[in-house]
Amino acid sequence: MSTTLLLLADGRFPAGGHAHSGGLEAAVTAGRVRDLETLAAFLDGRLATAGLVAAAFAAAACRGGDTSTLDSEMDARTPSPALRKASRAQGRALLRAGRTLWTLSTVERELHHPVALGVVAAAAGLAPEEAALTAAYGTVTGPASAAVRLLGLDPYATHALVARLARDCDAVARRAARVATVDELPACSAPLLDIGAEAHASWEVRLFAS
Amino acid sequence: MKATARITAVAEAGRTRLVTLRSEPPLLVRRTGPRHAAGEVEVHLVGGAAGPLGGDRLRIEVTVGPGARLCVRTVAASLALPGPRWPERAGPRSPADTQSTLDIHATVAAGGSLRWLPEPLIAARGCDHVSRSLVDLESDASLTWREEVVCGRHGEDPGDASLHSTVRLGGRTLARQDLAVGPRACGWAGPAVLGGGRATGTLLVVDPLWTEKPPEAAVLGPGAARMPLAGGPAALAAAVGGDLREVRAALDRAFT
Amino acid sequence: MHPEAHTHPDPHAPLTAGARALRIGIGGPVGSGKTALVAALCRTLAADLRLAVVTNDIYTTEDADFLLRNGVLPADRIRAVETGCCPHTAIRDDISANLDACEDLEHDLGPLDLVLVESGGDNLTATFSKGLVDHQIFVVDVAGGDKVPRKGGPGVTTADLLVVNKTDLAPLVGADLSVMARDAAARRGDLPTVFLSLVEDPAATPVADWVRGLVKG
């Protein structure tokens, strides 16, 4: 239990998160997410795929894994150039914030977001599982908050969905933190997150950066 | 059933020759193109039985030598099925007793080319299948690698199937993808993963000619996109659709 | 990766004022004329200042074409920032995307004198963070009602320059400019307020002069 963990996981932490919908804007426009039920299914799938991958990379980076290896392994797991760009933009924003608050072990300006999160979490004195939890939690709260803004869903009902995912989120973080080697790092893919991100990047007008 | 198939293609005097063609039921390998070809040599895996069935341990090893050109296809879809009924007197089952596995290991040497274009895997109700592919490319090798999954036979909910694939180029990881469908996979049918689509597939192309300029990202329809990869002259097309025909059509036009 | 950044001892230290372009924020309610003011300033100042624009507004290729056609700025001098439906957050609470856009413009275009950061249309409570801009302009218009300065709010009260825009419409909407001037002075103390009509003064002369004074100063 640590206040630092809450600080880093807080949606108000100034690391650019508010401008990213985690694929939700694309899913809403495609008609795949329309209401609480479809949002719940979206969050389930995102947590099990992108959430587990992000959590495992955050834990590995927090444990002191080589950032450039982790960064290129993250590239290999992110076929969508739009998602690579979004991940690096959020990583850059997080490193900017982290560098102001703590002393980071890397001089990189830009890393994939989960790798940056691990680096910042380590600098803040957090454990790998806490870094993993922050990453997993962020992969569901980002789109949940975007859903409130885009679909006008009841914020209480939306938070109830997130609360219901708490146990799954904890389990994802525990599993992610157990990953011991680079080869074991998960690569769970979500085809519609990739395809949706490419469609989103091709739009003329977007409300969210990704 | 436990079986290993082995295919080795080498280049000799500007032609490709198959030097190993090892079959073991149910993995039967047949040469379907000319024995010596100036272009690509083609082989088909001919299903010797329905399957894979729970408990099967299948392995395919493909080696493409420097400058050789090989295409591997299958004559029909693979239908992953649960294993035979487990006799109660045999005691408790372990996952090894009920899971079917397919391990594919391919290596392509410099200047070599492998096109891996099998028919899809159909994850039938109750199956528990794991497919693992590892492709090692020397730099300057070419690859076309297709993977497709259909979630259940007509009107049927799928069993569990997971596909893990790793492609390395010059020793560095170029692409890693794990896809899981079925009752044990969380959220797989939901709007983040397949969105109710019953078929999905990817086509990965590595082409040394793209070193200067890989193909641009393109949206190929509501459920398909072509995406240049970060780690080399390569792009991945991904598609999700209501059936295999939709997915195949999107993948077929992804690089044309 | 960013060769120029490495000429500084710490490549990640934020560029201090002086080492980077002056940044001026332009905020104000929806429809008050922020984009038109930005366009006017670009036309007036582009001849003698190296400038670029970051816009937080919903920015279409039509907008870009419009600005280009009217000789305002080439497309590569304008960056759009998506705000995730939270325009005030992007300029005040979490300024990272705007900082990235400002830095990328200077990195890509070379040294600049001025970056104008246009906020997305918001309400009277939105202001720019001091971590993002050096000075800010708040734009209101007479059509929004002559009570606006009296309502105050951080934008009207604390902006370095208050622009009361579209004065040509005052007679049509029954707005009393003297009331607005009196209320603005009461709210703002010594801080300047200018009245502007881009119909009558397409060069936005008083605002352009104010900006020039800051850049040269």
From TrEMBL, chain A:
Transmembrane segments: none
Chief localization: cytoplasm
Record keywords, A-Z: Chaperone, Cytoplasm, Nickel insertion
InterPro entries the UniProt entry points to: UreF, UreF_sf
Compartments where located: Cytoplasm
Parts forming coiled coils: none
The family this protein is said to belong to: Belongs to the UreF family.
UniProt subunit comment: UreD, UreF and UreG form a complex that acts as a GTP-hydrolysis-dependent molecular chaperone, activating the urease apoprotein by helping to assemble the nickel containing metallocenter of UreC. The UreE protein probably delivers the nickel.
HAMAP family linked to this entry: UreF (MF_01385)
UniProt function note: Required for maturation of urease via the functional incorporation of the urease nickel metallocenter.
Protein name: Urease accessory protein UreF
From TrEMBL, chain B:
Record field: transmembrane: none
Main localization, broad class: cytoplasm
Keywords in alphabetical order: Chaperone, Cytoplasm, Nickel insertion
Record flagged with keyword Repeat: no
Localization per Swiss-Prot or TrEMBL: Cytoplasm
Pfam families given in the database record: UreD (PF01774)
Subunit structure: UreD, UreF and UreG form a complex that acts as a GTP-hydrolysis-dependent molecular chaperone, activating the urease apoprotein by helping to assemble the nickel containing metallocenter of UreC. The UreE protein probably delivers the nickel.
Primary role: Required for maturation of urease via the functional incorporation of the urease nickel metallocenter.
Record-stated family: Belongs to the UreD family.
Protein name: Urease accessory protein UreD
Organism of origin: Phytohabitans maris
Automatic annotation (TrEMBL), chain C:
Residue ranges of domain CobW/HypB/UreG nucleotide-binding in the record: 24-192
Keywords, in A-Z order: Chaperone, Cytoplasm, GTP-binding, Nickel insertion, Nucleotide-binding
Annotated binding of GTP, by residue: 28-35
Superkingdom, natural source: Bacteria
Chief location of this protein within or outside the cell: cytoplasm
Classification via CDD domains: UreG
Compartments reported by the entry: Cytoplasm
PANTHER family (alphabetical): UREASE ACCESSORY PROTEIN G
NCBIfam families in alphabetical order: ureG (TIGR00101)
Similarity-based family: Belongs to the SIMIBI class G3E GTPase family. UreG subfamily.
Function: Facilitates the functional incorporation of the urease nickel metallocenter. This process requires GTP hydrolysis, probably effectuated by UreG.
Assembly, per entry: Homodimer. UreD, UreF and UreG form a complex that acts as a GTP-hydrolysis-dependent molecular chaperone, activating the urease apoprotein by helping to assemble the nickel containing metallocenter of UreC. The UreE protein probably delivers the nickel.
Cross-referenced HAMAP family: UreG (MF_01389)
Name of the protein in question: Urease accessory protein UreG
Organism for this UniProt entry: Phytohabitans maris
